[in-house]
């Protein structure tokens, strides 16, 4: 006879943003920089990024309604997502800093290259790049869910991603000796 482990107590206080953030922090995510080009380029660190569909190729990202990037994305035809690699914590912190310079000057502190399918800057050395056309946007409470149709992509094979878990940047553990492909 098997017995089920006792379920953890349910938190009925989901209105507590500190507890909610702590619980959500138990889910490890990748770290990206979302960029838009044009006359006033903009970048923003985001970890709410995921694939949606393979056909058509769609990705999504969630941006706070009060973020300047939310307004910029709503007006842009294209945007890019750079999936940061391990060791790019400084890039993540730079684009998360609300006091960084506006416009093109915010890219002076990082290595970047121009996108080929759109005009959004791509972070150099990233594990992957996705250049996207704006597809749809949806209400997501205090965030907006932006979907993009992938126009172009590239990835650096073997490049370890930057990971965020428990409120800290982390690295993946190397594979165990017997787990190497």
From TrEMBL:
It holds the Pfam family Flavin_Reduct. Keywords: Oxidoreductase. Residues 24-171 form the Flavin reductase like domain. Signal peptide: none annotated. InterPro entries: Flavin_Rdtase-like_dom, NADH-dep_flavin_reductase, Split_barrel_FMN-bd. This is Flavin reductase family protein. SUPFAM superfamilies: FMN-binding split barrel. SMART domains: Flavin_Reduct (SM00903). It comes from Streptomyces prasinosporus.
């Amino acid at each position: 006879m098997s017995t089920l482990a006792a379920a953890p107590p349910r938190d009925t206080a989901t209105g507590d943003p500190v507890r909610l953030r702590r619980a959500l922090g138990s889910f490890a995510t990748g770290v990206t920089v979302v960029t838009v080009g044009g006359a006033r380029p903009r970048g923003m660190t985001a970890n709410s990024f995921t694939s949606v569909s393979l056909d058509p190729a769609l990705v999504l990202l969630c941006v706070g309604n009060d973020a300047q990037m939310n307004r910029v994305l709503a007006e842009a035809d294209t945007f890019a997502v750079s999936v940061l690699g391990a060791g790019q914590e400084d890039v993540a912190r730079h684009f998360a800093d609300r006091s960084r310079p506006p416009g093109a000057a915010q890219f002076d502190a990082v290595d970047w290259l121009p996108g080929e399918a759109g005009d959004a800057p791509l972070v150099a050395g990233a594990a992957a790049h996705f250049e996207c056309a704006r597809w749809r946007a949806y209400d997501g409470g205090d965030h907006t869910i932006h979907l993009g149709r992938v126009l172009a992509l590239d990835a650096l094979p073997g490049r370890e991603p930057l990971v965020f878990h428990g409120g800290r940047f982390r690295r993946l553990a190397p594979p165990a000796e017997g787990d190497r492909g």
